[in-house]
Structures are given as structure tokens and as C-alpha cells.
Amino acid sequence: MQAILLGIFAAFFFAAAFIFNRSMELSGGSWIWSGSLRYFFMVPFLLLLVLMRKNLSHLLSVMKENIWSWILWSSVGFGLFYAPLCFASSFAPGWLIAGTWQMTIISGSLLAPFFYEIIQTSQGPLKMRGKIPIKGLFMSMIILVGIALIQVEQANQFSPKDVLFGIIPVIVASFAYPLGNRKMMEVSGGRLDTYQRVLGMTLASLPFWLVLSVFGISSTGMPSLNQVGQSIIVAISSGVIATILFFNATDRVRGNMQQLAAVEATQSMEVLFTVLGEMVLLSSPLPSLLSWVGMFVIMIGMVLHSYLSHATGSAAKQKVSA
Question: How many domains does the chain have?
Fold first, then answer.
């Protein structure tokens, strides 16, 4: 339950990215700088946290062991996750992106066969290839039905181009984020705490963001002071606080794909927080009754998903122990 609560708090702070990315886009900022500046500004905050805990040398030592894997999977988990989300903000409002982003609930479950679960048996830990949690996937579909209800009325207001470029990049991001996160958990092998792993992935993803920044300078010029200021807010809220909370939650259930899928399902709360945030900060109109029904369905689906994952996980452990 602690992992679920951490996931919900993470969703609250993650919502800042959707809201402020849309705000920066509406004020004329480039999606390239919305993505790059977030990770540039994350470095000093994370570095300070790790230095205060006196864990920097250990992190660098672990990274040196397999630096190319760090760069590859950090670029996937952070680069191919956040750059497409920022690109999509050029074509769709935050609520639509946040809603489509909930595909990560399905994406995370579909990735299960590519990883191994650690199951404790009477003979010791047993390494088994993960299986797609079919029942949990069904509960995830309930969440997506709720998200569809939120979007159905407003999606008709956008052109096919806006829908295409506002949705497909987010679907790509929905696979990249859990894939990069889980691969880095394998590479680090439980030797790093959450702060170290987030800093390590941020540092390892910098080549990706530097290349994108060079492209940004040549195509759109330097960012405005307004965009720099909003990027700092996103870096602290979504980049540091939310990422640490979410990674801490996934670390707590590492090795159990069913409970891991449940933690990732908590991110469905982002769409609720984004809707409310856009109403307050961007003066977005009040959602319709159908949208509120959709939000309620999302919450019901999340509770059922969490309950089923815990029940199934406990039953599986009892069966293996027997």
C-alpha cells in the first residue's frame, strides 16, 4: 500500500509537466527547450541530494561498470519518454496528453515477458520470466475506459493532424518510460538507492539532451526567460520530486511484475490532477458531467487493479511456498 500511495503523490507532481509544457507552448516556447531544460536543471538538485547522502562516488563506480547500458537505457527511459511528450504538447492540450499517457498502464503490463521475476521459494530465490497479468490488464482497460470518457467530447474539436501528432508520440513515450526504468533496475541490480538511480539516469541521458539542444539552437534559437523559469518549476516538481517518488515506489515492488503494474497504474491519477491544474492555472473550462464520470471510473479501476494485484501476488507466493 505504501508503494501505491507514493505512486499517487508522484502522479500529482508529474501533472506539473503536462500543465506547464502546454503553458510554455501557448506562450511561444519550443518543445525542444521544454524537454532539454528540465533535465539540465534536474542535475544540480539531484547532485546536491546525492552529495548530502555521501553516495556520489558509489554511483559513479557502478555507472563505470556498464556505462553504455546506462546511456542507452537512460536515453530510452528519459529521452524517448519526455521528448515525445513535449513534442505532443505542440498539438494537444495537457489533459489530452495526460489522458493518452495512461497507455503506460497497458504498455507496462505488455513488457512483462521481457523481464524476470524473483520469487522466494523453500529452496531459495527463483528467477522466472514475467507473464502478462491478464486480470490486471482487464482492470487497466477499465481505467482506459474512464480516460476515454474524459476525452470523447473534447477530442472532436481537434483536426486529424493534431490528433495524430498529439497521440502517437505519447504512445511511444508510454513504452519508453517503463522499459527504460525497468532495464535500469536490472543494470543497477539493487545496488543504488532511488536518489542515485535518478541522478545516474539524468547524467547518462545528457548526451541525448545536448544533441537535441544543438538542434534547438539552430532551428528556434535560445529559450526565453519565461520558458527558463517554467522549466525550473517542472524540473523540481516533475523531474526531481515526482521521479524520486515514482522510482521509490517501483523499487519497493521490484521483482514482482503484478505489483509493479499496479504502481504504474497509479499514474492514471495524472489526468485528474492535470484537468484541475489547467482549470486553475490556464483558465480551462469546467469538465462536463461525462468527464467527471470518467474520472470516477478511473479511480474505481485503479482501486480494483491495486486490490487484484495484491491478492494475486499473495496467492502466487503461497502456491510457490507450498
Answer: 1
Which triple of cell numbers denotes residue 259? 505489483
Domain of residue 310, residue span: 2-321
264-316 pLDDT tens trace: 777 778 888 888 888 888 877 776 788 778 878 877 777 676 666 655 555 55
Contact 34, 89 (CB under 8 A): yes
Q: Contact 98/274 with Cβ under 8 angstroms?
A: yes
Are the beta carbons of 242 and 14 closer than 8 angstroms? yes
Q: What angle do CA 138, 144, 148 make, to 5 degrees?
A: 145
Does pTM top 0.85 for this prediction? no
In 3D space, the residue among 49, 38, 33, 44 whose CA is nearest the CA of residue 16 turns out to be 38
Cβ pair 78, 220 in contact under 8 A: no
Rounded distance between C-alpha atoms, residue 309 and residue 311, angstroms: 6
d(CA 271, CA 99): 5
81 is written with which cell numbers? 519518454
CA distance 224 to 190: 40
159-184 per-position pLDDT tens digit: 777 777 888 899 899 999 989 988 89
